[in-house]
Structures are given as C-alpha cells and as structure tokens.
C-alpha cells in the first residue's frame, strides 16, 4: 500500500501501487503555487479586458480556495506585473518570436509572472521561477505552450540573472552562458 502524500510540496511523486506499477500522485499545492495561479487568473482578466487592477484583485479574492494562497506573493505578482507591464513586455520582446500582443493571454501572463519573479524576487532561485512558470503553462496553457515559456524564460534568465545562471552552469561543468543564445 502507498504511503500518504505529505502536504506542502509542489512536485509530483511517483509511487508504486500494489502491483508494482508506478503511478503519479499529485502532492498538495503550496501556498506560493496557488498565489501564482490566482495571479495568472488576474493577469488573464487584465490582458483581455484591461479592467482596473483593484477590481480584478477583488474578483480573484472571491475565488474558492483563495484563503489557501500566499496573499502577499499574489499581491506582489498581480499588481507588480500590471504596474511594470511595459517594462516586462520590453524585456520579453527581446526573447519572443512575435509581438507580445500576439501571444495567447495565458502564455503572456505566465511569461509576465516568470519575468517579474526573475527581476523582483531574487530570493526565488531562477530555476524555481522558470519551473513554476512552466508548470503554470502546463496547467493552463496550450498543448506545447510550456516549451515556449521554458525557452523564453531560459533566455531571459541569462539576461536578468547572469551571475546565478553562470554559477549554476559552472557547478555542473557546462560551457559559459552567452546572452542571446
């Protein structure tokens, strides 16, 4: 019989069932992941309607399970992404293959969250910020949207977190990172 899943981890666990077949068991979402999901919902609404950020914030807070999210991180992401949208889009423009206005609102919102975390949340390792964005894209985006998000944020990380990216590559013996690759 499988062990119970421990709360508080975002990863998917592979457990063997009674027949020895591995099954994926989703672990409960962390408060931080939930905050990203709610911020994405708000950014989607903002990208589609350009409604007032305060109204969007109020709509999102009415959602079921909002109380389980990291409210401070949600506020930072939603309001920071909306406030810095022009700066974030200028950054994204250097790494995407089309105008940001032509991206799907989901992928655009996910990329905004990823760039915002890479820029303003330096306590979050760059690999975690990218992985969390990829997971958002897998959950809410198109079929291969997560691959696009991963590629764009990998490039953005080289620009925004050059020292951290270089240190990670050196630690595993990879060649030095070059901007634009």
CATH architect. name:
Orthogonal Bundle
Biggest beta sheet attributes: 2 strands, antiparallel
The Rg value, from CA coordinates, equals 17 Å
CATH topology: N-utilizing Substance Protein B Homolog, Chain A
Spatial ordering of strands, largest sheet: 1-2
How large a portion of the residues is in β-strands, by DSSP E? 5-15%
CATH superfamily: NusB-like
* Straight-line distance between termini: 47 Å
Number of domains: 1
Rounded mean pLDDT score? 87
Query: What's the level 1 CATH class?
Result: Mainly Alpha
Order of helix and strand elements from N to C terminus: EEHHHHHHHH
Q: What would the principal axes of the Cα set say about the shape?
A: globular
Segments where pLDDT lies below 50 for 5+ residues?
Answer: 1-17
Number of separate strands:
2
Helical percentage? 55-70%
Question: What structural class do the secondary elements suggest?
Answer: mainly alpha
Number of helices: 8
